[in-house]
Every structure is written in structure tokens, then in C-alpha cells.
Amino acid sequence: MSSYRSRRRPAPRDKVNSLGLFPTEDVKPGTPRTLSQLERLPTDIAYIVVKNLAKRDLGNFARCSSVCHDFTLLLRLRRIILTSDGIRAFRDGGKYEMYRKYVRCARFVNPSGWDPDPVWNEGEGNRTYRDPTVPALRTYTQSLDYFSDITELHITYKIPAAAEGNAFVAVYASISKQPFYQQLRKLEFVVEKTQETAYYWTQADLNPEYLRLEKEDQEFLGDRILKEEDVDTTIKRLVVPAPSLRSAMISVTGIARPWEALRTGEGRGLFYYYPFFQAPKLVELIVNVKGDGGPQGPRSSSRCSLDITQLKELGNQVLGRQKS
């Protein structure tokens, strides 16, 4: 049996181990640890090596050892997805509170993963289920207060169609007041409109369902806005310059295509464009129109890159109509 063992081939090592970036041999407790090749590199060179890893590879590399985890922490925190656990980690007293200033890109978690109570207090025990739509949107939006240095923001949410205007006003009013808004270089809005929420918001039932919301959610949404013309007026009043913005995207079901708005002088969802009328350095605006079967008839999904000249024309048209 011992002879058989001596002839066995050594187990293959994985790709990362074969690079010798961290110790692979089992050592007895108390044995001095041998420095890995990564630790022997000058810090700036090791940082360059790790910095050029793809995002997925960076995450895998961080799981190789405690050394790799700690060494890549700040790089991994530059781009974050806001989740329930993530928000708790960055809030006051959280384990990542001291690293807030390193975050440069924040992305809302996909709405399919929204929690009914995104930042519940652990000591409260079981709570009655709440429709996650508004509480989650409020929580993810307000959690951006933690990150004063982000330059890239991806906002994704779902909302009942009847509350679409209120939601956009609330979100834009919140982010446009943040210190980071003046330094944003990329901004994306992905809005999913649905009637299939716990309370089935409809235009006729908007008022009573609005009153069912928790007080903090009502305060977040603000006064009820029932007409799109009123949403337009409110957003125009709220818009502030975005002097650093260079790239943007809007993805909303049924939003008016830019050329439709220019041709007809009207269209649904024009208020989504208003924040970009005062972005002088904007060079790219992607508009993704999802399928819609509304009053204008069925629409196929389409994605287009808007010519900035079109955006300026649309802005002049809207602002001219406002002055008149």
C-alpha cells in the first residue's frame, strides 16, 4: 500500500495557485508563514497587476486567501450593487463605513431581488409583509447619502404606472441635491412600470392606496401627482445643471422616442429627458423604448443612440413651450 501511495501523481493545482501568489502548503500552527509572491512584489506593482483583472476575476481572486481579500478590498468597493446587506454594511457603524469615500459607481439591485423591508432592524422580529415597491425605492435612493464621491450611477426600479410621475420626481429630487451630482459622468435610469404589485395601484385607486403607505414612504413620494403635465412642471422646476455628465441612458416602457417628440410636439414621458437639457458635456444618450400597447398602439422594443443635436432641439422646444 505504501508503494502504491508513492507512485500517485500529485493533485493538480488550480490556475491561481499555480501562479504562486499565495502559500498553498499546509503548515502546522505556530509555523512562521512564508511570504507569497504577491506579497514580495512592490505594493504599487502588485496593485497594477490586480487592478487590471476583469471584475469577475477580481472577485474570484479575492476569495483565494485573506491576503488576496484584503489587498483587493478597495478595488472591489469602487463599484457596488446596493443590496440589503450592502446598505447595512455602509451605514453608520457598519463594517464598511470607513470605506464610503472609495465608492465610485453605485447600482441599484435588480427589482426582482427587492426586499419588502430593505433595512429592517434586526431586533424587531417578524413584521407584516409590505409591498416592497415604494419602501425599497426610498431606501435605495436615500442610501446614496453615504457616497459623496460617486461618478457613475445606475438607477433601476419598478413602480406602478399610476405612481410613475411621483416616483421619478422623488428620485430626481433626492439625487440632484447630492454633492456627487455635480461630478457624475454617467447616469442611467431603468424604469419598469407594472400594475402587478401587492396593492394593485390604478389611477382610480391611487389615492386610497397612497394612504396605505407608511408615513416615511408618503413623505418620500411627496404630494400626489395625477397628471403628466404636472410632472413636467415639477421636474422643470427641480432640474439643476449636471456639468460633468458625459453619458446617459433612459430605459422606460412607452417613453416617447426623441424624433416622435420633435415631430408631434408631444409625447409620453418627456420629463425623463429634462435632466439632460442642462448637461453641456453630454456626448451620448441611449434611449431604450420597451414594448407598449398604450393609446398610441403596440410598439416594438427599440434602442437608439440620440444625436445630441436632437436633444438640444428637444430642449429648446420644451423650454420654449414653457416660456410661452
TrEMBL record:
Q: Where is the segment annotated Disordered?
A: 1-30
Listed Basic residues bias regions: 1-10
- This protein is called what? F-box domain-containing protein
